[in-house]
């Protein structure tokens, strides 16, 4: 095993000193070997990719579609994305110049931050939030500014955004994610319009992550890009809507001038997206508009079951409007922090969840539970949590 030359110990990107590994994955790894553990801690759809979508990927391989695609993805896919966004969310993007296909939504985020941030630029991030936002901003040289939304049902309000901008008048960007990981809350058109007015007045760029847009249970999803397209980089993909997390297929849509720069960074990071994934995505977008419907119905049933049971056990819950997570406040009788409580739950109740602290300081005191798991597993997990809670009360 080679040992690094001592003279090279400091040869690395020093921004990594401020970045810790994902607590979601590290905690999952820590508890994964507990015998009999039921996992409710990973954001992984509890369905397989639809058969017709899988077949399109297989057929692309059989047809020897194995060469580099254009850097921004096959035009046929970009046209499918453009058509889908128009039909589904009334958005209009030119597939030639305003869409880039990426290796998942995370790469779309990485390329967007690297293309738009200069050292020291501040980026406003509602918290609790997906931890990758903070880390990717830091890797790009930006400065994340967290906004604790827990006092407002986990929603960013125009008043809070205005107050934060008064303290950080040089802020360049706002990250908006909804339905939200980890809380599952979403925004109405009226709420988005109020935020859009503040964004427009201050000339912010919005990094708009709508990866869970097809998993909305209450009302219709409205894209922020519909309200303020000139200020928005839209991030989306097929990981959640079509259970294609392993395909790594996402996309960026926005004004041509900014997508051009995102595509430039994207090209140096990955060259081009995977061909089988692209042909699968073409099939999903052109012929799989209804594929998310049964998934959405099943998730809603699981959400309702989990919400009702946990509330009866004393967990505080803001009912999720989308995605497949519940962000539950730990019952008052427990004094442990979220990591300690989650570890105890894993060892004693044999149920794996994610500590709220993994989503920033604003998440302390909470747990994230995924209801993307199989319904029978969820029922068993809830039974085991019920037994655990009742035993502590005796």
TrEMBL record:
EC number: 2.6.1.-
Gene3D superfamilies hit by this protein: Aspartate Aminotransferase, domain 1, Type I PLP-dependent aspartate aminotransferase-like (Major domain)
Pfam family for this entry, one: Aminotran_1_2
Top EC category: transferase
Keyword tags: Aminotransferase, Pyridoxal phosphate, Transferase
Molecular-function GO terms, alphabetical: transaminase activity
Necessary cofactors: pyridoxal 5'-phosphate
Every Aminotransferase class I/classII large domain range: 37-385
Similarity section: Belongs to the class-I pyridoxal-phosphate-dependent aminotransferase family.
Name under which the protein is recorded: Aminotransferase
Lineage: Bacteria, Bacillati, Bacillota, Bacilli, Lactobacillales
């Amino acid at each position: 095993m080679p040992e690094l030359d001592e003279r090279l110990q400091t040869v690395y990107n020093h921004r990594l000193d401020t970045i810790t590994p994902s607590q979601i994955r590290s905690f999952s790894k820590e508890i994964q070997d507990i015998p009999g553990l039921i996992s409710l801690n990973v954001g992984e759809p509890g369905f397989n990719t639809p058969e017709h979508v899988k077949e399109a990927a297989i057929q692309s391989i059989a047809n020897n579609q194995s060469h580099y695609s254009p850097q921004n993805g096959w035009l046929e896919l970009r046209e499918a994305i453009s058509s889908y966004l128009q039909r589904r969310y009334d958005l209009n993007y030119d597939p030639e110049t305003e869409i880039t296909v990426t290796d998942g939504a995370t790469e779309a985020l990485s390329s967007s931050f690297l293309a738009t941030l200069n050292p020291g630029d501040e980026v406003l991030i509602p918290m609790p939030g997906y931890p990758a936002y903070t880390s990717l901003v830091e890797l790009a040289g930006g400065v994340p500014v967290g906004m604790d939304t827990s006092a407002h049902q986990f929603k960013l309000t125009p008043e809070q955004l205005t107050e934060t901008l008064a303290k950080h008048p040089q802020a360049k960007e706002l990250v908006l994610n909804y339905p939200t990981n980890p809380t599952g809350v979403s925004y109405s058109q009226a709420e988005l319009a109020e935020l859009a007015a503040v964004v427009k007045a201050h000339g912010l760029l919005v990094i708009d992550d709508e990866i869970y847009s097809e998993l909305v249970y209450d009302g219709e999803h409205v894209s922020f890009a519909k309200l303020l397209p000139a200020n928005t980089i839209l991030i989306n993909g097929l990981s959640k809507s079509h259970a294609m997390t392993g395909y790594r297929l996402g996309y960026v849509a926005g004004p041509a001038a900014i997508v051009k720069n995102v595509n430039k960074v994207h090209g140096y990071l990955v060259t081009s997206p995977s061909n089988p994934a692209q042909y699968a995505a073409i099939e999903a977008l052109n012929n799989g508009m209804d594929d998310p419907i049964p998934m959405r119905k099943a998730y809603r049933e699981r959400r309702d079951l989990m919400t009702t049971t946990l509330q009866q056990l004393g967990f505080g819950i803001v009912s999720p409007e989308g995605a497949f997570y519940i962000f539950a406040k730990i019952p008052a009788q427990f004094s442990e922090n979220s990591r300690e409580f989650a570890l105890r739950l894993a060892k004693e109740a044999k149920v794996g969840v994610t500590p709220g602290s993994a989503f920033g300081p604003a998440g302390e005191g909470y747990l994230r539970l995924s209801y993307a798991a199989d319904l029978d597993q969820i029922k068993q997990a809830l039974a085991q949590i019920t037994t655990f809670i009742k035993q502590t009360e005796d």
